[in-house]
Write a structure and sequence with these properties.
The chain contains 13 helices and 17 strands. Bound molecules: pyridoxal-5'-phosphate (PLP).
Length: 391
């Protein structure tokens, strides 16, 4: 099928939930994607932070295909050695205590929200159910995670939204203090706001949140869906802030390209979720677990993390001398670019024409390249970006 046939069928048969770039990606290798017309692209997106090992990494393909040929799904009514191996790894890597496996970021966040409310209910009874999130946060597209998302544009049409959320201005300690009343059970934050414009939180704000939470037995929950799995230069981003969260949620890069999410809690919360309080049909699917086990075995070594940081620095250094760049934000290989001409959307569309896939977030350009991208691919992509920026 050629592009116009694919596009026609998309318009005829699919709900119009996405504004798409004008290309249909059909295959890929490393950080290079190929579309339906045979045109190649350097990929600075990883499918929004998902393909952390790039397209069709050899070890990842082997892990997924050999698991598909062994057992593709069992129900959560039975034990699974892949689920236990993955959960054990996640606990060992984080020092956390228990894992719930699901299929997406929104689901991992739903689990975190349920844990926070049940922990508080079990210990303090009713009336302490509010969860504070941040203005400009993004936590997912279910009705409850939309309510958790601190952006008014998402609070439309689907009323009534889940109650019990309030929004604190990022990096504003006074606002946090004033909203952290006796009805609050959790503070739930991204450490680098992704969709909100690649905005890192200040150390001061995160320290204040951690201190207030621990004083009031309010859970500190970190949405690592975008920042996690070595994206920001440590396995999870919270490590860089020196805090000990009560809950971490993870998804996107965790499966390296297959749907998997995880909600990870500390020892204090290990008994909160009890039989039948939560569940999922697909969560912890063996193929997804095999993929995640392979991802973790690769992205958590000291050498790999050092490379992520080196490549992040390399990107920053090159971007700093590029036309139309007024600011560069983010951590590791999660990079936001503020443009002088405030024309990120236009640049992103131009890049696609030139053979570079690139993201936006609010009015910024956003790069989430595969963590395994080569320097050759980085140079190639940056030279296309530079051309688009100069126009
Ligand atoms: C992408 C994202 C989500 C939602 O994940 P889905 O897998 O799309 O449900 C939640 N939180 C953050 C920070 C994200 O970047």
């Amino acid at each position: 099928m050629n592009f116009s046939e694919i596009k026609n069928d998309e318009q005829q048969y699919m709900m119009h939930t996405y504004g798409r770039f004008q290309t249909a990606v059909v295959s890929g290798k490393g950080a290079t994607a190929t579309d339906s017309e045979g045109k190649q692209y350097i990929d600075f997106t990883s499918g929004i932070g998902v393909n952390c090992l790039g397209y069709c990494d050899e070890g990842w393909v082997k892990a997924v295909s050999s698991q598909a040929a062994t057992v593709q799904h069992i129900s959560n009514l039975y034990y699974s050695p892949l689920q236990t191996e993955l959960s054990k790894k996640l606990c060992e890597l984080t020092g956390m205590d228990k894992v719930f496996l699901c299929n997406s970021g929104a689901e991992a966040n739903e689990c975190a929200i349920k844990i926070a409310r049940k922990y508080s209910f079990d210990k303090y009874g009713k009336g302490r159910q509010k969860i504070l999130t941040l203005v400009n946060s993004f936590h997912g597209r279910t009705v409850t995670t939309l309510a958790a998302t601190g952006q008014k544009v998402f609070h439309n049409y689907f009323f009534p939204f889940t109650e019990g959320f309030d929004y604190v201005a990022a990096n504003n300690v006074k606002d946090l203090e004033s909203k952290l009343g006796d009805d609050v059970c959790a503070v739930f934050i991204e450490l680098v706001q992704g969709e909100g414009g690649v905005m890192p939180l200040s150390q001061e704000f995160v320290d204040a949140a951690a201190k207030l939470c621990s004083e009031k037995d309010v859970l500190l929950m970190i949405d690592e869906v975008q920042t996690g799995v070595s994206r920001t230069g440590t396995f999870y981003c919270y490590e860089q802030y020196g805090i000990s969260p009560d809950v971490i949620t993870s998804a996107k890069g965790l499966g390296g390209g297959v749907p998997i999410g995880a909600c990870i809690c500390n020892e204090k919360l290990s008994g909160v979720m009890t039989p039948s309080s939560h569940g999922t049909t697909f969560g912890g699917n063996p193929i997804a677990c095999a993929a995640a086990i392979e991802v973790l075995s690769r992205v958590t070594t000291a050498e790999f993390l050092e490379e992520v940081n080196k490549k992040g620095d390399y990107f920053r250094e090159k971007l700093a001398s590029m036309p139309n760049v007024s600011d560069i934000r983010g951590k590791g290989m999660m990079i936001g670019i503020v443009t002088e001409k405030d024309n990120a959307k236009e640049i992103a569309a131009k890049c696609v024409e030139k053979g570079l896939l690139i993201l936006t977030a609010k009015n910024l350009l956003r790069l989430l390249p595969p963590l395994t991208i080569t320097y050759e691919e980085i140079d190639k992509g940056l030279s296309l970006l530079s051309e688009a920026m100069a126009e």
